Amino acid sequence: MAEKEYRRLTRTRQRTAFGIVATGRCSLWLGMDHILSIETTGYTESYKRFYFRDIQAITLRQTDRWKYWNLVLGAITGLFGLIAVGWGRSEVVAAWVFGILTALIGLWLAINAALGPTCVTHLQTAVQTEPLPSLSRLRKGRKVLARLRPLLTEAQGPLAPEEIPARVQELIGVAPSANPAPAASPPFAAEDPNAPPRSAA
Amino acid sequence: MFNRRELVPCPMCAAPLQIEIFPALFRHIGPGRDGEALVIEGESSCFYHPQKKAVLPCEGCGRFLCALCDCELHGQHFCPACLEVGRKKGKIRRLENQRMLYDDIAMSLAVLPLVIFYLTLITAPVALFMSIRYWNAPRSIVHRTRWRFIVAILFATAEIAGWGIGIFLLTTRFHRHG
Questions:
Q1: Which ipTM value was assigned to this complex?
Q2: Of A18, B4, B86, B135, which is least packed with CB atoms within 10 Å of its CB?
Q3: Is this model's pTM higher than 0.80 or not?
Q4: Cβ neighbours of residue A149 closer than 8 Å, sequence gap 6 or more
């Protein structure tokens, strides 16, 4: 059997704007010498390739989205549960409707809680810092990072932990400014020997 | 705070972070190569810059290229024109950055209009045409089977057959009742 060119790193996840509106789906795949990020808009797929030798850093930042969702879903589940119990004797149909809603939202809450804390992941190369929306859970992010670490080390060579602080300091100190300040212009025309002659009036 | 296996608070905003850095971060990126000017009469020159010295031929079209026009892609050397053509036509797979998912379109055209059945009169033939026309077209870059095309063909055929039977029954009944 022919070897698969890409292996799945993450499942397809909704890319969302403002946390609610879905704007596309993203997934991450592992190639022979690169990571492939696929963004699907429904009928087209866009690809971004990040070659192992070019990846400078991967950052996971924990967010509070997990906690807020748990709080909101927990409140709704509790409220609907209370309504279902309260109407249990008088309004049987309404009690059933709210009971089913409670179960469904409770299931959503359980899944969200089980998936663990959320995070925002960024991948940095020399020319871009790209968000990876499909890596939105800390646990999954760490798992993927653990899978990528040996591949990136193989492609770029090892980086000893003790040499990191010195090299980071060196990088900060040596790196030229992205927007170099313009050459200071003389405040008065008289101080500039190359300025064209002007009339005093 | 780098390459630690746990979350560390950011020194600026205190957000919990895990940052993994790699040697590429410290790699010095040198300036781009400039083409060398021709100094000897009759020396091979670049196809695009006749005043610059050719350093190698394009592996796509064979034109001589200077260091400025040489685009290296995984050990292969192309001129900018070949690179652009290769990207547009999908000949250089590593440059391909978008694909149309015809199988998804065909399946959607066959299945979704079932909600408003009358639409299938138009969408079913279109779905069937797309499934046949793009059967061999490249699908997703990651392994994907043709099951969406098969579903589209089955649904579209059933819808067309349904319309055919319905129209046949209507016309025969119309003729019978005179």
A1: 0.78
A2: A18
A3: no
A4: B20
